[in-house]
Amino acid sequence: MNLVLQGVGDCQARLERIAALTAPTNLTWVGERALRCEGIAFSPALRQTIEVAAQAAQLDTTYSIGYHKMSEFKLVAMDMDSTLITIECIDEIADMQGLKPQVSEITEAAMRGELDFSESLQRRVALLEGLDASALERVYEERLQLSPGAAEMLQAVQAAGLKTLLVSGGFTFFTDRLKQRLGIDYSNANQLEIIDGRLTGKVIGNIVDAEEKKRTVERVCAQLGILPSQAIVMGDGANDLKMMGISGMSVAFRAKPVVREQANVALNFVGLDGILPLLT
């Protein structure tokens, strides 16, 4: 087994200290803030010891058998809200109505997998009825920020020739703009109904739920003539699990516990560019 340890800031001493617990046959730096422990004797007890120590040291841990190469993959698929970007757009739109607490509560429950996503989205969007559509532009301009490491990750995978997909239970108003701004190849999201410059509280067409996210990844893979196992899929909420489940590498980014437990890779401290040291 190999183990990659990663951190942020001045973390080299912390990385070396936790790496020593693994009794590796070899240590390789894969960047300034990432250390690969090679040939470790894996056991559940050792893993628990390392996980507890790494968490306390604010380091991310990723185990693998052998090595992954960037060339193994042809597609990177990303959730948008709280993954590619730092905010939940619908919560910020609701804030314009003075309804952020109510909407955020529903969003959190849906992301934890406690509510059906489609039902939760319809409930949240209904609360936005009557809001001036200019609120969407305000959220995009004033509140939307890329997650740490997002630009660096995209630049690296695009330079390596991988295609990119933004698939979101959020809204086309934001995915369309991010697609153009970041040079993303494909996108799929929900379309808010707007009549006479105001939100009607409804979504046009089918809702992009967990099943549709999975189908989107499958469709794009088919268009590219590749297998889903050649895709890296990133997400943070329960509605991302189905598309993550068909991927060759599933990445839980600052994710809910249910997602972290099922993903191949969990990035809790480092940015989205934390996938790069995992791809030799």
From TrEMBL:
UniProtKB keywords: Amino-acid biosynthesis, Hydrolase, Magnesium, Metal-binding, Serine biosynthesis
EC number, as in UniProt: 3.1.3.3
Recorded GO CC terms: cytoplasm
GO MF, any single term: L-phosphoserine phosphatase activity
Keyword rRNA processing belongs to the record: no
Gene Ontology biological process: L-serine biosynthetic process
Active site (UniProt): 79, 81
Superkingdom per UniProt: Bacteria
Keyword Metal-binding attributed: yes
Cofactor(s), names only, from the UniProt record: Mg(2+)
Family: Belongs to the HAD-like hydrolase superfamily. SerB family.
Stated name of the protein: Phosphoserine phosphatase
Organism for this UniProt entry: Duganella callida
Gene expressing this chain: serB
